[in-house]
Specification:
The chain is built from 13 helices and 14 strands. The structure holds zinc ion.
Length: about 400
C-alpha cells in the first residue's frame, strides 16, 4: 500500500483542491481519497506541488517519430505535408527504434493513453508491448478521387486488418483528402461503438477550397498528379463536408480546428453531440505559428481535449508542455480547465473513463507529480514555465 499527499490535487470534481491524501494499492489502484485534515500527514509521503491523474494524449502519430527535428518550423501545412512524404521511407530499424523511444518518452511524461493515427503498420510491434493504452485510428485518404477510392480503401483495409485485436477504427484523414465514395466505405465499416477522428480546419486553405475552390489545395494535389477539375465547392466552410458525409452518432474527435468559427463548432455539435475538439497547440505553433482562440471553443462545447500531434511537428510528446503553451498564450483559461482537457475529457473521448482520466476510488489512472505550482500576485493558481512532470504510478 502507498500513502501520499500533496499541496494540491486535481480532484475528480474538476477542481484543484488543497492538501489531499491518496491511498493506492501495489498496482496503483486508488483505494481512498482523503480530504484535508482527515488523515495523519506523518504517515504519508509528501509530494510538493500537484498530483494529477495520468494524461491522455488524444492525438498523435507514433509512426512519424523518426522525423523529429527533420522538418523546419513555421513553413505552413502544405509544404509540411510535402516534407513528411519525403521522409516516410526511412530504414525499418530507424523507424522502429524511433517509435519505441517515443512510446517510452510518452510513458515517462505521464501519458497513460493515446489516440494514435496510423496510416501504416509500423507502430504495431511497440503498441503490443507498450504500458500505454492506445486507441488506433487507421486513417485513409484518396486525394478526393472517387474513381480511386476502392484502391485506397483496400490498401488501408489491409493496414486495419493487421492491427488485429488492438482497439481500432477506420477513419477519414481530412475534409480535403477524402472523396464521397471513400466516406461511404468508412460509414459502412464502422458502428457507433467505434470512435472516429478527422483532421479539421487546420489551415485557412481548407475553408477556401470548400467555399469557392480557391486556396492552395487544388494545385497541391495536381502536383501529385490528381485532378481537381470535378471538385465542386459547397459554398460553406470545410467542416460541413465531412458532417454531411459521415453517419456517426458515437464519439468523434475533430483535431486542430484552428480555423473553425463559432458556427462551425455549433454545426458539429448539432450534427453529433458526441463531438470532441482536440487541440495540439505546440504543433500549431510549429507548423503555422498560430494558436486557436479557445474562448470560442469553450463558448460552444465543454468537450475539449489535448494532443501532441507527432514528433514531425512537435519538439516533444509531453502533455504538460501543451498545457504550459495554452496557459501562457491564453491566460483566460484556468489551470482547472486545462487539466480537465488533459485528463477527464481525453479519457471520455477515447471511452477509457472507466479506469483512466480522474482520481477516483477503484480507478488506476496513473499518478503524475507536477512541481512548480504556485499562487501568483493576482491570487490565481499558476504553473511555473519550468514545471516538470514525474510519473510516480
Ligand atoms: Zn495529426
Amino acid at each position: 500500500m502507498h500513502k501520499l499527499y500533496s499541496d494540491y490535487i486535481f480532484h475528480d470534481s474538476g477542481k484543484i483542491l488543497n492538501n489531499y491524501g491518496l491511498i493506492l494499492n501495489e498496482s496503483g489502484k486508488i483505494l481512498e481519497i482523503l480530504a484535508e485534515n482527515s488523515f495523519d500527514k506523518t504517515e504519508y509521503q509528501y509530494y510538493p506541488g500537484l498530483l494529477s491523474p495520468g494524461f491522455i494524449n488524444a492525438h498523435c502519430h507514433l509512426e512519424l517519430s523518426n522525423m523529429k527535428g527533420k522538418i523546419d518550423t513555421g513553413i505552413g501545412l502544405i509544404p509540411f505535408i510535402n516534407s513528411v512524404v519525403k521522409f516516410r521511407n526511412e530504414e525499418e530499424n530507424i523507424i522502429q527504434s524511433a517509435i519505441k523511444q517515443a512510446d517510452t518518452e510518452m510513458y515517462n511524461n505521464g501519458i497513460v493513453a493515446v489516440g494514435d493515427i496510423s496510416n501504416k503498420t509500423d507502430s504495431i510491434k511497440t503498441k503490443k508491448e507498450s504500458k500505454i493504452k492506445y486507441y488506433n485510428f487507421i486513417e485513409a485518404f484518396d486525394f478526393m478521387q472517387n474513381h480511386l477510392s476502392d484502391n485506397f480503401y483496400n490498401e488501408y483495409l489491409n493496414v486495419y486488418n493487421k492491427f488485429e485485436s488492438l482497439q481500432k477504427s477506420f477513419v477519414p484523414h481530412a475534409s480535403y483528402s477524402v472523396s464521397a465514395s471513400l466516406f461511404n466505405k468508412i460509414n459502412n465499416l464502422n458502428t457507433n461503438q467505434n470512435i472516429l477522428s478527422i483532421h479539421n480546419q487546420e489551415i485557412k486553405d481548407e475553408n477556401d477550397l470548400f467555399q469557392n475552390k480557391s486556396g492552395g489545395f487544388p494545385n497541391f494535389f495536381e502536383s501529385f498528379g490528381f485532378s481537381f477539375k470535378d471538385f465542386v465547392a459547397i459554398s460553406k466552410s470545410a467542416i460541413h463536408y465531412p458532417i454531411s458525409q459521415l453517419h456517426h452518432e458515437g464519439n468523434i474527435l475533430f483535431v486542430h480546428n484552428t480555423f473553425s468559427s463559432e458556427d462551425d463548432f455549433a454545426a458539429a455539435m448539432k450534427w453529433n453531440k458526441n463531438s470532441y475538439f482536440v487541440t495540439c497547440p505546440n504543433a500549431n505553433l510549429f507548423i503555422e505559428n498560430r494558436l486557436p482562440d479557445y474562448s470560442l471553443w469553450k463558448s460552444i462545447s465543454k468537450n475539449i481535449c489535448i494532443g501532441t500531434d507527432s514528433l514531425s511537428s512537435n519538439w516533444s510528446l509531453n502533455i504538460l508542455e501543451e498545457i504550459k503553451t495554452i496557459v501562457k498564450y491564453q491566460s483566460s483559461i484556468s489551470l482547472e480547465e486545462v487539466f480537465s482537457w488533459a485528463t477527464i475529457n481525453g479519457a471520455s473521448a477515447l471511452k477509457m473513463h472507466d479506469n483512466l482520466g480522474s482520481l477516483s476510488v477503484n480507478k488506476s489512472p496513473g499518478i503524475n507529480w507536477i512541481e512548480g505550482i504556485y499562487i501568483n500576485a493576482q491570487g490565481k493558481l499558476s504553473l511555473d514555465p519550468n514545471a516538470k512532470v514525474k510519473k510516480i504510478f
